[in-house]
Design brief:
The chain has about 230 residues and is an all-alpha fold. Helices cover about 80% and strands about 0% of the residues.
Length: about 230
C-alpha cells in the first residue's frame, strides 16, 4: 500500500466551532421557548410568531457576539505584535535571551542556541513571528475571521432554530406541535451530536448523548416553568 508523503490535517476547526456554537444554540433555545409556550398557550400562531422573533433576535445577537470575539482576537494579536517589535528593538539582548530559552526547552546546546538566536535576529519579521508563536502562544488570526464567524454562527443559528419550530406550521394545536417538534428536534440533536463528535474526534455516543441531554433539559425546564406560571 502506497502511503501519501503528505500528512492530512483538519484545517477548518474555527468554522466548525462557529457552526457548532450556532447550531447547538439554534436547536436548543427556540425549542425550549416553543416548548415553554406550548405549556401556556394552545395557539400555534402565537408560538410561531414568538419563535420566529426569537430566531431573528438570537441569530443577530449570536452573530454579533462572534464578530466581536473575532475582532477582539485580531486586535489582541496586533497589540502584542507591536509590543514585540518594540521589545526586539529596545530590549534586544533580553529578547535574545528569551529566544535561547525557548530553544533550550527543545534540548539544543548553548552554542546552537546562541547561533540560531543571532541569525534569527537578523530578520525582525521572522523573529517576531517566532516569538509570537513560541513565547506567547499566539497564531496570526485571519483578517476576515470576524465577519466569517458572524455569518457562520448567524446562519447556523437560523437553520437550527427553524428545525424545532417547523412542526408548529403543520399542526393544529400546540400540544401536537410540541410532540412532533420534540421528535424532530431530538433526532436532529442526535445526528448533530454524532457529526460534531466525528469532526472534533470525540467519542460518538458521548457527544450525541451530551448534545441531546442539553436540549432535553432546556426544553423540559421551560415547559415546566411555563406550566407553573400558568397555574
Amino acid at each position: 500500500m502506497q502511503v501519501s508523503p503528505y500528512e492530512q490535517h483538519f484545517q477548518s476547526s474555527e468554522k466548525v466551532r462557529d457552526f457548532v456554537i450556532g447550531m447547538s444554540d439554534g436547536l436548543t433555545v427556540p425549542f425550549a421557548l416553543a416548548a415553554g409556550l406550548s405549556g401556556a398557550v394552545d395557539q400555534t400562531s402565537i408560538i410561531i410568531t414568538a419563535g420566529l422573533a426569537e430566531i431573528a433576535a438570537g441569530s443577530i445577537a449570536m452573530g454579533l457576539g462572534g464578530y466581536l470575539a473575532g475582532r477582539t482576537e485580531i486586535e489582541h494579536y496586533d497589540s502584542e505584535e507591536r509590543r514585540e517589535y518594540e521589545e526586539i528593538e529596545k530590549l534586544h539582548e533580553v529578547e535574545i535571551k528569551e529566544t535561547k530559552e525557548i530553544f533550550a526547552e527543545y534540548g539544543l546546546t548553548p552554542e546552537l542556541q546562541e547561533t540560531i538566536a543571532r541569525e534569527m535576529a537578523k530578520n525582525p519579521k521572522k523573529w517576531v513571528d517566532f516569538m509570537m508563536r513560541f513565547e506567547l502562544g499566539l497564531e496570526r488570526p485571519d483578517k476576515n475571521r470576524a465577519l466569517q464567524s458572524a455569518i457562520v454562527i448567524g446562519i447556523s443559528y437560523v437553520i437550527g432554530g427553524l428545525i424545532p419550530l417547523s412542526a408548529y406550521f403543520f399542526t393544529a394545536t400546540a400540544t401536537d406541535g410540541l410532540i412532533y417538534s420534540s421528535i424532530i428536534t431530538f433526532i436532529c440533536l442526535i445526528a448533530f451530536g454524532i457529526i460534531k463528535s466525528k469532526l472534533t474526534g470525540q467519542p460518538l455516543f458521548k457527544g450525541a448523548a451530551r448534545v441531546t441531554l442539553t436540549g432535553a433539559l432546556a426544553a423540559g425546564a421551560a415547559f415546566v416553568l411555563a406550566k407553573l406560571i400558568g397555574a
